[in-house]
Specification:
The complex is a heterodimer of chains A (about 325) and B (about 525). Chain A is α+β, with helices and mostly antiparallel strands. Chain A is built from nine helices and six strands. The two termini of chain A are about 40 Å apart. The chains are: A alpha+beta (about 325), B alpha+beta (about 525).
């Protein structure tokens, strides 16, 4: 049987030659993120801004359509309402802004929507988040992302040299920011699951970066006579096959969640698909490229050499 | 590494066996559970509310209201302590969040302080010459919050239990919050109504001459009286005596019934002590209206016809359901604090089962696709990686069942994602073996070096991912926590399966086959 080979053996691409183009690309998408955040902000879901969400399924194929639903809900004077199809023709997501007044008004509004729609629609899900909880979740989300970035940075600092740690954290922040940017530009709903997707993306991206850095560290010791440029390129090439294969298997899993996992998970999968792509890109073109700005010592300063077999030292 | 230790192989096989045994109950229908599955030690995975349907409510006890009440009772404690110690005072009253009074001339400040601290040594007593200001310290507030929450959880539990909801879960979260989870209940409106009432029932006399017809909400009340609205008609008011003659705490039982006119009402029975008090009041005030006040609103104010002792009826413009609910909340006791619903999430059973089936489909297709890809990329070694992957999934399911972690929809996504990422360790190892082989090593040496040198990378890479998962766990709530648990379990099991199980399979194969050429 002929086996599939995505990347030939002994590739020798000069990745670092594209350093400048890659930096420009990164600069563009990051400024795009900020511009979009300024103009569009994020489309916060009710998890973060509070409000009411109902998922309805029409039980009557003739009457159940988005216009009908819009008409029915518009009789309630609920303020800002958004209604959209959700996954299927017959399924709808109704989002309603937080009602004036206390919790009783919120609960009353849920009941009102239920009562005007109950003839033709079944309620599959109803959610209400108070603004206090929304703010708390927002803070907690930011805290979680910062905490993750910080702990990863400290770990890499301990395991590698500080230069690696800085390069890795910049690459990681790049990935997190642009994923947020993707949600801002496409105006996808930014909710708790998005935070989960962002953190998992961060986990994946750092995984990828660490694999390449590991090889850089090894090659720095092995090829003491060669220059950094050569070593970095060689390390990327040596790990390229692994980078591509793992990206492919992860992407396979993610695309399957995207297509078969149901509407609730599709945005989540989309964020992760972007995360894997940008994470792979940033490991090579941001993290390793950034190393070229440091003059990392070969050998002497790298004291820590665990798990390298005796015969290699 | 060199020799295939028998003990290790047995240990690995045993752990896989255990994994299968603990994962197995999840693959049987619950209908079969009575027979064969009972022999298995494990339980099924605990499904989250988003998968099995149900309601989640996050409640907050409104402690401000409680503190205000406690301040009132602190004021009466201060009044009686000062009187007992024969200390003169004037203008004793409650302001925003403190009690204040003015002492009469010639009293010692120190004495007043010691009398007040005698009530509770944690109180904060300040004075500006002769004006005293007493407020609760943080210790006081903590204690009040703690006891309030204990009572509140108990009352919430009683009320929910009375509705006959299956396996409700009621837990405190943080200092003043309660999480209520109601599996299988997709419309919690009745529960919300039940929890929306504190159900403080008081019997208070109505002013003998000031009639409802003559007052509105801004009417000035004579000393000792207060204007209260009617429960069903908020534009109608009563002039009610502030003094509570009998309160709901003296209630022994309450049940829905019908009154003489056959309209729904609630009959109640008082405790012996309550009955005695009730008898005394009703005996003394025949002919006067007696207001039944629920949560600060007048339900009805019947005129006392004769002396009544331990049993009575609450009538009002009720529906049958309302009398059922009123009886229920009266029986379960008053909530010590009003409950505010901060968050509510309800999932119907239809959506839950749809999510499960789409999760199953995604998992199966994901598994097959990843396995197929590994097979065409690595051939025989791909089969080993696939065996490890299957073991990994069995371990994830087994561990989730064992620790009874809650599997949520994002959790299923976590499992599918783990399938994609779990093979990474094997990819790292195989790529390394390939490299070592291409660098001119013999195949057996290449395999050995490949494993040995890939491990440090695998550990570094997985530990960093674990940090992200830990951050998710520490912050996450509900479904997100479920996702991070599956992710963490997936990281741990994938390291075990990808490194150890694959290693033994590869070693076993290379010993048996005596391969000389790399197979990928």
């Amino acid at each position: 049987m002929k086996l599939l080979r995505l990347i030939p053996n002994n590739t020798n691409f000069d990745f670092l030659r594209f350093k400048k183009i890659a930096f420009i690309f990164s600069a563009i998408i990051i400024s795009g993120t900020f511009v979009s955040l300024l103009i569009n902000n994020l489309n916060y879901g009710i998890d973060f801004k509070g409000g009411i969400l109902l998922e309805l399924r029409s039980n009557n194929s003739n009457n159940g359509n988005i216009d009908d639903l819009r008409n029915k809900v518009s009789t309630l004077n609920a303020g800002e309402v958004s209604i959209q199809n959700f996954g299927k023709e017959t399924d709808f997501l109704v989002r309603i802004q937080k009602q004036d007044g206390d919790q009783k008004q919120q609960i009353a509004m849920i009941e009102k929507v239920k009562s005007v729609t109950n003839k033709d629609y079944n309620v599959r899900r109803s959610e209400f988040v108070g603004p206090v909880v929304g703010d708390e979740l927002k803070t907690a989300g930011m805290l979680a992302v910062s905490l993750a970035l910080l702990s990863i940075m400290v770990y890499i600092w301990f395991r590698f040299e500080w230069q690696f740690s800085i390069a890795a954290i910049i690459a990681l922040t790049h990935d997190v920011l642009t994923t947020v940017g993707l949600f801002s530009i496409l105006q996808l709903e930014f909710n708790l699951a998005t935070i989960a997707a962002i953190l998992t993306t961060a986990g994946y991206s750092i995984n990828d970066t660490v694999v390449i850095f590991d090889r850089v560290r090894e090659n720095l010791r092995r090829y003491k006579s060669k220059d950094h440029y050569f070593i970095y390129n060689k390390s990327i090439n040596e790990t390229l096959s692994r980078t591509v294969i793992t990206s492919v298997t992860t992407l396979i899993a993610l695309f399957i969640i995207f297509f078969f996992g149901g509407a609730v998970l599709s945005d989540f999968a989309l964020a992760m698909i972007w995360g894997v792509l940008i994470g792979t890109f940033s490991s090579i073109f941001v993290a390793v490229s950034l190393l070229t700005f440091f003059n990392i010592n070969k050998g002497d300063k790298v004291e820590d050499q665990p798990n390298v077999p005796e015969y290699e030292r | 590494m060199k020799s295939l230790s028998k003990i290790r192989i047995i240990l690995i096989l045993f752990s896989v066996f255990l994994g299968i045994v603990y994962a197995a109950p999840n693959f049987f229908n619950s209908s079969l559970q009575n027979n064969s599955v009972n022999l298995l030690p494990g339980k099924k995975i605990n499904l989250g509310l988003d998968l099995k349907g149900g309601s989640y409510l996050l409640l907050k006890a409104d402690m401000e209201v409680v503190f205000a009440e406690k301040l009132e009772s602190l004021m009466s404690d201060i009044r009686s302590s000062l009187r007992k110690s024969k200390i003169g005072y004037k203008k004793l009253n409650v302001k925003e969040d403190f009690v204040s009074f003015q002492m009469r001339k010639g009293t010692s400040v120190e004495k007043i302080k010691s009398v007040i601290l005698g009530i509770d040594k944690n109180l904060i007593v300040k004075n500006n010459i002769d004006i005293f200001q007493i407020e609760f310290s943080d210790a006081n507030k903590q204690k009040i919050t703690k006891t309030t929450m204990m009572q509140a959880i108990e009352i919430v539990r009683r009320r929910i239990d009375e509705t006959g909801t299956n396996e409700p879960s009621i837990q405190q979260q943080g200092t003043d919050r309660i999480i209520v989870q109601l599996p299988g209940l997709d419309d919690p409106s009745r529960i919300k109504k039940l929890l929306g009432k504190t159900a403080k029932l008081n019997f208070q006399l109505v002013h003998p001459t000031i009639l409802s017809e003559d007052i509105n909400k801004d009417s000035k009340s004579p000393p000792g009286y207060i204007v209260l609205p009617e429960d069903k008609n908020l534009d109608r008011f009563y002039m009610v005596n502030k003094r509570v003659m009998v309160s709901g705490e003296m209630l022994k039982d309450a049940s829905p019934t019908f009154d003489r006119n056959n309209s729904p009402s609630v009959s109640f029975q008082l405790s012996p002590l309550g009955g005695k008090k009730f008898g005394r009041v009703t005996g003394k005030h025949v002919g006067r209206a007696f207001a039944i006040v629920l949560d600060g609103k007048v339900v009805s104010a019947p005129v006392i016809q004769t002396q009544i002792f331990s049993t009575g009826q609450i009538t009002g413009a009720f529906s049958v359901q309302e009398t059922n609910d009123l009886a229920l909340v009266l029986r379960s006791g008053a909530l010590p604090a009003p409950m505010i619903i901060l968050e509510e999430r309800s999932v119907g059973p239809g959506l839950g089962s749809d999510s499960i089936s789409s999760g199953k489909i995604a998992s199966i297709i994901g598994l097959i696709a990843v396995m197929f890809f590994m097979l065409i990329t690595y051939g025989v070694f791909g089969i080993f990686a696939n065996i490890a992957l299957c073991c990994n999934i069995i371990f994830i399911i087994a561990l989730l069942s064992m620790i009874q972690a809650t599997l949520t929809l994002p959790g299923i996504a976590g499992i599918v994602l783990t399938m994609g990422m779990a093979v990474d360790a094997n990819v790292l190892i195989f790529e390394r073996i390939k490299e070592e082989f291409n660098a001119g090593r013999k195949i057996v040496d290449a395999i050995e070096a490949g494993f040995q040198r890939a491990i440090s990378t695998i550990v570094d890479a997985n530990l960093t991912t674990l940090f992200a998962a830990l951050a998710l766990f520490s912050f996450g709530s509900g479904p997100i926590k479920g996702f991070s648990v599956t992710l963490m379990i997936g990281i741990a099991t994938s390291m075990f399966t990808a490194i150890i199980i694959t290693k033994y399979l590869v070693l076993f194969y290379s010993k048996k086959k005596d391969i000389n050429n790399i197979l990928f």
